[in-house]
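Internal QA ticket QA-208
Title: Verify multi-chain structure generation after dependency bump
Assignee: T.L.

Test input:
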Amino acid sequence: MTAMHNHSNAKSIGNEPELNDAAVDEMLRDAHVGISRVLWSIKRPVARAGEIPSPIGKLFFAESDRGLAAIHFLFSGSGDRTIDRLRRKFELVENEPASRRIATDIRRYFDGDIAVTQRPVDLRIVESDFQRRALEKLRTVPAGSVISYSGLAAAVGKPDSQRAIGNTMASNPVPIFVPCHRVVRSDGSIGNYGGGVPNKVRMLRIEGFKVGPGLRIGPRAVFGNRANSIFCRPECPSATDSGLIFADADAAIRAGLRACRRCMPA
Amino acid sequence: MASSGNSIFPPPFEEAIKRHEREIMRFILRSAGDREDAMDLFQDTWLRAYRAYPSFKSTVGFRPWIFQIAANLCRNRARDRVRRTRVIVLASDGVAGACADSDHAGLLNMKHAIARLPKNQGRALMMRKFEGLEYGEIATALNCSADSARATVYKAMRKLKAAR
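Actual output:
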């Protein structure tokens, strides 16, 4: 229904004459002067957003001026919750060039160009500081390695908060780029994934981490310690599960770690 | 609204409201009765809707949603006026000198009568009679069926006539 249509149908109260469009437009211009005085202080920043294809299925993305703010696997859920979280912080605007750019980056990742995941991310929709710290710490886990929930909890300085780490991973707003697929269970099984376990295995494989039989970390896995740049066999007394886990000794060496002289893993 | 086509999220607020601004202003102008109040109420409506927009769901329909906000604000303003007028009347010891002009008094009486209606009846009446929303749109705004919306407007009209 157009404004003109309403105009002719609407009934007025009192003796106020109906205004023509020009007079109403003038009132609107004046009103917007007042609105803009308040709006600057409450205005939500813009995020470019849209649906994009990918080698694993349809995705939703949002990108602010600071970086990628969201990736959602549309094939595993509607994305309503992610979009609700985003809309509280951003004004979402469809943007074709951004859609093409992000889709290209994701395709390159699945073709093996892991460096594209280093693009900046915007974690403003993450409400808690703890969760934000956990996600930022997770970004330092190099491709080709994984970390356990307890290891990540320890790395954030809260060694008893594995469950909170699990919740943080489940609500990670930017999967793939904040690599929650690199978090595994302490018992050696690779655990769940919002985009589906087969995709988790696929992404780890692309990054050079080969998952062993039964969806568990392989028998050749070694534990790396970033603090002293040493890697050990899991059974080594010096080994700790609060660090990184590499698929094998070669992967740890490629990441710049040296073999433990006690357990001689390589 | 180019971006609202098949998108899984609503268009940006300013894009969504732009096409309705004239009719919202006219609606408010008719409800408020004077331009100064209308300007004020339009700004309140715009900013309140902007703040609430993150919780707006496309399934509701933007038009009924924004008109509900405008209608609520107009109704609140009318109710405030009733309260203020009561104070004036009491202060002047029963002499209704505040409403010297008969047209203005008629308008004020209408507003008082609407403000006294049950909440949903007042809203439904404002949306139907002042802005010409369809019963289906009113039903969406009030979360009821179209028949129920029609009945609500009918009851409101009957009460207004009885109050004359």
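Spot checks passed. The two ends of chain B are 44 Å apart (CA to CA).
Status: verified.
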